[in-house]
Amino acid sequence: MKKYKVGLVLSGGAARGLAHAGVLQALEEEGLEPEIISGVSAGSIVGALYADGYHPGQILEMFLEKSMLSYVKPAIPKLGLMRMTGLEELLEEKLHAKRIEDLKIPLLITTTDIHSGKAVVFSKGKLIPVILASSSIPVMFVPSVIDGITLVDGGVVDNLPIDPIRNQCDFIIGVHVNPFGEIAAIDGMIEMAERTFNLSVAAQIEKKIADFDIFIEPPELRNYGLTDVKKAKEIYNIGYKEAKRLIGLIDTHVRTAS
Fold first, then answer.
1. b vs e for 222-242, b when ≥16 Cβ sit within 10 Å of the residue's Cβ?
2. pLDDT tens digit string along 192-231?
3. Catalytic residue among 153, 170, 213, 228
4. Is 153 a known active-site residue?
């Protein structure tokens, strides 16, 4: 038997990441709380708040009735268009743990070293700077610098980071909130950046689905954009309902693994 029974991997996806909280609610209701979490970008945000002790419904409440502009501020456009000042302030207010290793549930956060092009995974160190680094979508947001390394969104190289926990868990659930499909048109720079990011992610995800005992990817989320924070409750409910739809299969596999 491995160190942990149930591991959870949470993808990036900006506003769509609130579906992760809905999935967590469904898992909680069935007694399937993760013992370790691997998250990237939005998955690291939701993962950190959950690992800090917040209930999924409380995480939803933090983001209700807010627009994307509540979390970002324009930056001098050299390496990114915006800074995540508002998000940083929210995390500073809400997170009790200041370091990754102080969280109640072990959390591994994936970032990308923009110079080497390799994933950098953090399991300890200051929590908020690493979350912000993991969430810094290139072009959209200014990169972060930690220990002299320039870091951007971990989803650039690994938007579903199973590797950090692959050999530690008996059973692994993956949640991907960026279902891929054809779109009719692209309207503006932000949508272009979003589409480009999704294109880069799509190929890597296809290869990973078989690695999970259960893979959750709510198809309805393709109707929501990266900046649709005001639709937080809808997105949350989509994640919850899709997890509930699969819960029988999840429960069967977990009981078999145990």
1. bebbbbbbbbbebbbbbbbbb
2. 766 777 777 777 788 899 999 999 999 999 888 877 888 9
3. 153
4. yes
Extract the tokens encoding 141.
């947001």
| SS3 per-residue string spanning 188-205 | CHHHHHHHHHHHHHHHHH
Distant-in-sequence, close-in-space partners of 109: CB < 8 Å, separation ≥ 6: 39, 40, 44, 47, 48, 100, 121, 122, 123, 130, 131, 134, 154
To the query of whether residue 135 is one of the catalytic residues in this protein, the response is no
Type of residue found at 237? N
Contact 11, 160 (CB under 8 A): yes
Model-level pTM? 0.88
Is the separation of the CB atoms in 177 and 242 below 8 Å? no
CA distances from 222 to 100, 225, 235 (A): 31, 8, 11
- Rounded CA-CA distance 116/213 in Å is 31
Q: Choose the catalytic residue: 41, 44, 134, 144.
A: 41
Enumerate residues 6+ apart whose C-beta is below 8 A from 98: 126, 127, 128
Per-residue pLDDT, 220: 94
